[in-house]
Batch of 3 targets.
Target 1
Amino acid sequence: MRASAPGKIILFGEHAVVYGRPAIAVPVLHVRADAVIRSAGERTVRINAPGIGRRYGLSSARPDDPIATIVRLTCARLGVAPEYFEVHIESSIPVARGLGSGAAVSVAIARALGNFFARPFEPETLSALAYECEKLYHGTPSGIDNTVIAFARPVYFVRGRPLEPFEVARPFLIAIGDTGVSSPTKIAVGDVRRAWEADRERFEALFDRIGEIAREARQHIEQGNNAALGELMNQNQELAHAIGVSSPEIERLVEAARRAGALGAKLSGAGRGGNVIALVETDAQEAVERAMLHAGARRVITTLVKS
Ligand code: PMV
């Protein structure tokens, strides 16, 4: 039984979303995590994740192992014992680059297990199961990654609130450039928390401005006013810099993309590394991709954002 889940990018609002402000995220459908569940003769569960060079038994996994956790949680939800099957995971989503690889692996496994036991899950349930595992990646996840990945559609997300319907009036292109720098979400989120604790007034004001940008961006996307998004991305990037999550590698790619004709560019996800996203029109797409590669991007993929 095979199931998969897409990657994702955050268009607006990362970090501020942890503090209750809105954010916008969209799926990236051509990078995916796949999970395959097969019956097995042993009274245990074998986990095979060749992409990260790991093969181990559920019973020997560490208590905080995210793959073991999603297997156990999903089985508990289904009311079945975790035994007599094998979990095989393949993912084309780079790890620790802000593309949601952890949440995608969790959703793919939970979805495959639901199908394997002939009890397919609704996206809400998949999202809730993956959220429990997100807590292992970092202590205070907003829930945006598991939501956008489980629903596989653009989301306007506010922590703790049900998903709001959100339409993309006119599809648009986002070039995603990989800085090549791995940046665990936990570290960036923890650093922002310490900075916020040290100067709450300043950080609350910065988060307010980031939240305003996400609100405005939603209106533009719903009205098909895509060109206006570029300037909002640039403003969001400045604020990301102000909260301390940009980096020289990010700024090199942001600059290169803008100079090559992108309408706007910013980091996406936790920052400090990971991916830079740039809004491009069709005729600038190639030039922006080339410019980002020339400025040090490991790879660039361009995705069409649509409802
Ligand atoms: O998983 P990443 O790197 O895309 O980061 C998630 C976005 C944050 O806002 C930084 C954290 C969160 O839980 O929303």
Target 2
Amino acid sequence: MLATAGVDIGSTTSKAVVMVDERIVSHVIGASSTNPSRTAEQIFEAALGQAGIARAEIACVVGTGYGRTRVTFADLDISEITCHGRGASFLHPAARTVLDIGGQDTKVISIDDRGNLLDFAMNDKCAAGTGRFLEAMARSLEMPVASMADEYFREGSPCTISSMCSVFAESEVINLIHDGVPLPCIVKGLLQSLANRVSAQVRRVGVTEQVVMTGGVAKNAGVRHALSAKLGVPVAVCAGIDPQVVGAVGAAVLAADQVMKRRGKG
Ligand code: ADP
């Protein structure tokens, strides 16, 4: 039996995955905290508990994400760019462009047929185009982020959100609410403005099919639809797994690669 784990300490959420013989046996998502080492410990323990596997049985742990160097029990840490690429390729072998939208940054990752990194572009300078943008807008609209997709698919034409800055976009949204603009029109405008921004970033790397979305924002079918319309190609998610744990899956797969290398089979 080869058991490995991936622990992804993100800016807003932390994720842990346990894999046994190339099969995902548990995955856990929890909030990140101001103490990443403790969060990592807790999330790892939770994933082990869910898998019914003892810590001593795990041959290798890879830490990734914003707080990857704080996963003190990890055998090594690997950048989330590499982990999202590998995870998406493992779960969806046709993936060539991976679009990871998290809480604080957006990454476009170009990979080969084995999930190896070819190129990437990252936006971690501006909140527009990240999960934080959607969170701020959902707060102004007094609705949960998870409900935005429902509004997006309701009838209504999208309004134009002209501001490129999320702070100004928030004022625009408040004005639209005061003007009595229906919610679906505002949400459509917001998701399209996010898609405009992200698709410009995707084009810098190149739109090679298949495009696969990972990260928490990939749960929003409205964002996927808006991006697909903007890019002119389908935007898929990995089947049968929460897109938010794809980075942790990649970390667990890379941990298995390490063990195989150590055993001389890599
Ligand atoms: P990080 O690794 O940076 O913490 P994640 O990939 O874990 O990022 O994603 C977190 C982001 O996903 C948050 O901004 C959160 O608001 C967003 N998110 C979670 N669920 C949804 C959803 N259903 N629709 C849109 N955004 C979501």
Target 3
Amino acid sequence: MPIIYDESKKIFYMHTKNTSYIAGFVSKYFVHAYWGKRVNEIPSVEAAAPYCPRGSFSACGDKNEPYISADTLPLEFPVYGNPDLRSPAFHAEYYDGSSVTELCYASHKIINGKPKLEGLPSAFAGENEAQTLEVCLHDEKTDIDVYLTYTVFEEKDAITRSVKVENNGKSVVNISKILSASVDFYSADFDMISLPGAWGRERRVQRTPLSRGAMIVDSKRGASSHQMNPFIALADKKTTENSGDIYGMNFVYSGNFTAGTEVDQYGMARMFMGLNPFDFNWRLESGETFTAPEVVMVYSNSGIGGMSRIYHNLYRNNLCRGKYAKTPRPVLINNWEATYFDFNEEKIVNIAKKAKEIGVELMVLDDGWFGSRNNDKSSLGDWFVNETKLPNGISGLAEKIEALGMKFGLWFEPEMISPVSRLYEMHPDWCLHVPGRARSEGRNQLVLDYSNKDVCDYIINTVGEILRNAKISYVKWDMNRHMTEIGSAYLPAERQRETAHRYMLGLYYVLETLVTEFDTVLFESCSGGGGRFDPGMLYYMPQTWTSDNSDAIERLYIQYGTSIAYPAITMGAHVSAVPNHQVHRVTPIEIRGDVAAMGQFGFELDLNRLNADELQKAKECVEQYKNLRNIVHFGDMYRLASPFESNHAVWQFISEDKNSVAFFCFNILAEVNGKYWFIKAENLDPESMYKEKECGIELSGAALMNIGLPIMSESDFGSRVYLFEKMN
Ligand code: DGJ
């Protein structure tokens, strides 16, 4: 059994195939004993989490146990108000003005499977796939119960954690901080890996040694954001891509978050993740419950790559839902960079016709089809078709595309409102704002107040109506600004600081309703590219437009960083025109095609503007992608060379059945008389022979892994894909 409770020693064991997470009770404290490589048993919690007196500045909570101070213990769920003076996971204010909480064991239960988190995205599991432990801790004075939930995915080597607070007292509780996971380590000898970025430059891999005090990555932007991803990992100093200990946390949430470490006076490190306490307060009335979102925790001793593959496998199988979670997705063409706002039905049909000729399967109409939107200055919220551009409406256009033998997809930005719109004329109070203060515009738009159910229902009805009345097989769900002047006309004064989280709950309600009704539609999320590339969004929409930066070289970095936590199947990746619209770089179509083939392949250009040679190459890119997509999307990814560390980037994908191996090799800049570099494969069968499909070379798994394939850095922006099939 993955979860075992040793009653006599008061120890909980949570075992996955290769890892263990162990916690138990020392005195009244729920103590973290161990997280790492599998350990079947420990003699006692104290053996793994020893304690000793540290003097008067680490106070003791019980005169009978003078050796025990919460300040020096590794704690499972640190709360404010006891001798533990490190950063707490929970802080609340009670009816008497106090903010001291004291949680003691009340009960626990172990169940098969994984209960849903009400109203929140979360990983899911069948009855036999996972086990869940729920530990209930009670605060006697206020009568609140705190439930710590751990789900163990035994075969997947992952554990999820979340927290629920139930107010069984008579008075309101103001929760000002509630994190979902906190883990204490006796050592601080780690590097923190995080994924900071910016618009068009998402998820750059950053590795920084832990230092005394707090190191925080967070978002206060109302979105998980381009600037910081809700992912961190602690890696042993010696951990590399292929070996060493690493501990990851990834937040299944798309709004404000905090994550980080605190290294204390004794050299202990606390790692944590949860809702951002900044500008947050939740009034929990008597009888109410608050559930904090889920953190996915992964330990691996196979380095950064080992951790990534665990996340990839879990997200492919236990996070992304719906028809498209496990089926190959269509090759698409999107008109955004081809036309921007300047299109009509004829132009779109012509783009689709040319695309059909080279094997594209889905035509996506982007921004500009509604209201009077001919630029970004108006009409968000007015989701009715612009008949000047599209005289036959969306349904007429969709039929024309379907008649070509293609599917049709449509762009929306349903969380926004333009001040120049009919919707704003009718409902000026439907946006986030604070009365009497300026409403700052970003891209000439304001954010709809999704904490208001009327707004959510309006969007569900409006978007639903369009999807019901036309043959729409794909939706791109965009979101193009962050929250400012966060306030809601709908919420009372004492609940204003709930707005940002209530917004996310509203958004999740809208998405759940729409993806449930339109369960055959493929949804792709987008936020100015990858501004909300997080597991929360992936729960509703199985792919995300990775970045607005479509330059092949920039994409090497962006897709590398994204792959630290997220699988290739979730990354929208398109071939765009040259000179590239974001960085003005000119790259060969081969590298643009090869980079896009490592994600959800598509085009972001007008193929009518290519010459015959380029069009033929574009066609070959589509064919190549169709041959590779099952391997890339459902296989295991190995990062063999990092563009952050060298002039090269190399990825290897091994198919699910282990019979096909693809290498994507990129040379960033040419070198004169440069040295050979060798691509050494990972995890092949050393005894088997593998044959390359194009050049026919036959090599053993041992040769591919130990000698490797020699490559020369001959050209700028060089790229090559090798596909080996196992012969025996
Ligand atoms: C931002 C997206 O990332 C782009 O792909 C495009 O859809 C524009 N918005 C449209 O306004």
